[in-house]
Amino acid sequence: MSKLYKPLLDELGLSYPQYLVMLVLRESNGQKVSALGERLGLDSGTLTPLLQRHARQHSGGHPSGLRVTL
């Protein structure tokens, strides 16, 4: 399934897991990382590096808050 999205996601600079996070945030913005992980079935050890990588790619900084927003 992710192969279908790859060309579009490459244009946006997102990986497929990052895209899934964005979909969840679109439904309910401002969630705690633990709530995101629960919703996606990912533990914080998987989700935190993904979010940090996304923050560095798109803001040039490092995430420091407990909530993730669009």
Describe what this molecule looks like in 3D:
- There is one protein chain.
- The protein is mostly helical and 70 residues long.
- The chain has a single domain, classed as Winged helix-like DNA-binding domain superfamily/Winged helix DNA-binding domain (Arc Repressor Mutant, subunit A).
- 67% of the residues lie in helices and 6% in strands.
- A two-stranded antiparallel sheet has the order 1-2.
- The relative contact order is 0.17.
Main attributes?
4 helices, 2 strands, Arc Repressor Mutant, subunit A, 70 residues, two-stranded antiparallel ribbon, mainly alpha
Q: Summarize this, please?
A:
By secondary structure, the protein is mainly α. 67% of the residues lie in helices and 6% in strands. It has a two-stranded antiparallel sheet with strand order 1-2.
Question: Which secondary structure elements does this structure contain, and how are they paired or packed?
Answer:
Blueprint: H1 2-12, H2 16-27, E1 31-32, H3 33-40, H4 44-59, E2 67-68
Antiparallel strand pairs: 1-2
